[in-house]
From TrEMBL:
Binding site for ATP: K305
Gene Ontology molecular function: ATP binding; lysine-tRNA ligase activity; tRNA binding
Reactions catalysed according to its record: tRNA(Lys) + L-lysine + ATP = L-lysyl-tRNA(Lys) + AMP + diphosphate
GO CC annotation: cytoplasm
Keywords: Aminoacyl-tRNA synthetase, ATP-binding, Cytoplasm, Ligase, Nucleotide-binding, Protein biosynthesis
Any GO BP annotation: lysyl-tRNA aminoacylation
Top-rank taxon: Bacteria
InterPro entries xrefs: aa-tRNA-synth_I_codon-bd_sub2, aa-tRNA-synth_I_CS, aa_tRNA-synth_I_cd-bd_sf, Lys-tRNA-ligase, Rossmann-like_a/b/a_fold
Protein name: Lysine--tRNA ligase
Gene that encodes the chain: lysS
Keyword hit for Transmembrane: no
Motif ('HIGH' region): 53-61
Coiled-coil ranges from the UniProt annotation: none
Length: 536
């Protein structure tokens, strides 16, 4: 980053209470004058996200990289100092079980226990299962335009870049055991070692006790339980012949790479504490970071990959743009939030509302606006002239088989230049609305017949619309609707709107009816009213 930012923007960033700036201030406190190497040369602030390549990237991967990137950019805005983001793949981890969503399961089953980077690729496309999943991760991150450096655990272990810290692990073996053992059950304490040697014969990552023979040479002694006869082996842990248990590995990585910031979920709080203690033993320092809440499903239960009760990124992006997903993930990271299809329309409309507000805001308000962070301060100018909710209601009354062209035809009632060339973002939203209605709303819609005072109110609305005509404004139509609700026999005004939604749209809730009728057309709305009255 350079110092080219508007001074007012930088000053606003330094004072902003938005959560990314609060997080970035932790780094300002950690390194008030910036980060420097031992020889005094400036160093970039290092942000890290971790990934286990035993499966494909998912929405948790997206949210962690997104939020970390947002904090990274906030720090740059506040300081103008350089940063790096490392996406670290723990591909030396042993394959513990065969995933359900892969081919050639027998191939994986035959290689259980081996490092993921040494397990053959069941898809037959890459040199290993880890290489396949790492490629998927990088494609995934590139798809969303993240700027990052990919780092492989295997590369760092086998190249020797972790060797000095691994020697430190052996030099401080008893101190690390003193950190870890109190957290383990008695039976696990008896066999625990922070170092996991890799069998020279079977290639399996071993969970066995080890004895430090020569810390400076990196030599340990252990019993290889993966081969017949349980051979006693003396072997170096350097150069990829061992890895660490994941909690010690996390702390070692923080110390070895000099990580300054890494966020993680509240389910890893205890692991983060242990990792920080181990980093300190190894001469490092626990990074700053945000502990975020976990996503819940539609029933309020924790999302679990094994249960399959979550929502995938592909599902969200079928029905809403990636900006809407980023918007939803950005907000309130310390609050548990549901993640299901029913959230998408509101997230889409909220995103567009915040985007519409952005140009007129001062820097203080802009830096608290989620779209500033989603678009890294370069918020596109185009706005959405019709809400996503209104599009969904329009598609709903159009019925099965509605097309983009037909929707644009109705939009001509509302916009003077209703075409995709003039409104490319609106055209994109139409595609999402058609998909969302088809798969999620249409099966639930059911119009009911009007009853009681609703009949006379609908008849009056029909007469008023006939008088107003097609050229009436949305506001004039809305005023007429309000007048019917206020002067009719409804106990409350909301009962009148609920009746409109249920009898005309087939839903318990709906849009601002004046805007909807303007969009759908007065004549078309009168036909809906006639159908409703005929259903008595």
């Amino acid at each position: 980053m350079t110092d080219a930012f508007d001074p007012e923007r930088r000053a606003a960033a330094l004072e902003s209470k938005a959560w990314p700036y609060e997080e970035a201030r932790k780094l300002l406190k950690r390194w008030p004058e910036g980060k420097f190497a031992k020889d005094g040369t400036p160093e970039p602030m290092l942000f890290e996200t971790g990934y286990g390549p035993s499966g494909l990237p998912h929405i948790g991967t997206f949210q962690e990289v997104l939020r970390t990137t947002i904090v990274r950019r906030a720090y740059e805005e506040m300081t103008g100092r350089p940063t790096r983001l490392v996406a670290f793949s723990d591909d030396m981890d042993g394959l513990r079980k065969v995933p359900d969503n892969v081919p050639n399961k027998e191939l994986l089953a035959a290689n259980l226990g081996k490092p993921l980077s040494r397990v053959p690729d069941p898809f037959g496309k890459f040199g290993s299962f880890a290489a396949h999943n790492n490629a998927m991760l990088r494609d995934f991150l590139d798809r969303f335009g993240f700027e990052y450096e990919f780092v492989s655990s295997t590369d760092h272990y086998t190249s020797g870049r972790f060797d000095e810290k691994l020697r430190d692990v052996l030099r401080n073996y008893n101190k690390i055991m003193a950190v870890m053992l109190p957290t383990l059950r008695a039976e696990r304490q008896a066999t625990y070692s922070p170092v996991l040697p890799i069998s020279p014969k079977s290639g399996v990552v071993l969970q066995v006790p080890v004895e430090v023979v020569d810390a400076e040479a990196g030599i340990i002694r252990f019993v290889d339980t993966s081969v017949p006869g349980d051979e006693t082996v003396e072997q170096s842990i350097l150069g990829g012949r061992a890895k660490l248990q994941w909690k010690p590995d996390w702390g070692m990585r923080w110390a070895a790479l000099g990580v300054d910031y890494e966020m993680y979920g509240k389910d890893l709080i205890d692991s983060g504490v242990l990792g920080g203690k181990i980093a300190q033993v190894l001469g490092g320092r626990k990074p700053e970071g945000l502990i975020y809440e976990l996503f819940l499903d539609a029933k309020g239960e924790k999302i679990s990959k094994s249960k399959g009760n979550g929502l995938s990124i592909e599902e969200w992006l079928t029905y809403g743009p990636d900006e809407s997903l980023a918007f939803y993930i950005y907000r309130e990271p310390k609050k548990a939030k549901s993640l299901h299809l029913g959230l998408i329309p509101r997230a889409v409309d909220d995103y567009w509302q915040f985007r519409a507000n952005y140009p007129a805001q001062g820097w203080k308000e802009k830096l608290g606006n989620p779209v500033h962070h989603i678009h890294t301060g370069d918020v596109p100018a185009e706005t959405l002239p019709v809400t996503f909710g209104l599009l969904l209601n329009l598609v709903g009354v159009m019925g099965e088989g509605a097309t983009d062209e037909q929707v644009w035809g109705y939009l001509g009632n509302y916009l003077p230049d209703a075409n995709a060339a003039a409104h490319p973002e609106l055209d994109r939203m139409i595609g999402y609305a058609l998909a969302y209605h088809r798969d999620f709303i249409a099966p639930t819609l059911k119009r009911r017949a009007p009853e009681g005072v609703e009949v006379a109110a609908l008849e009056r609305l029909d007469a008023d619309l006939a008088t107003l005509g097609e050229d009436a404004s949305a506001e004039d139509i809305q005023n007429a609707i309000y007048e019917i609700g206020k002067t009719g026999d409804f106990a409350e005004l909301r009962d009148w709107f609920k009746a409109l939604y249920e009898t005309l749209l087939g839903s318990s809730q709906g849009p601002r009816m004046g805007s909807f009728i303007k969009l759908y057309g007065v004549a078309n709305t009168r036909r809906l009213i006639a159908e409703a009255l005929a259903a008595q």
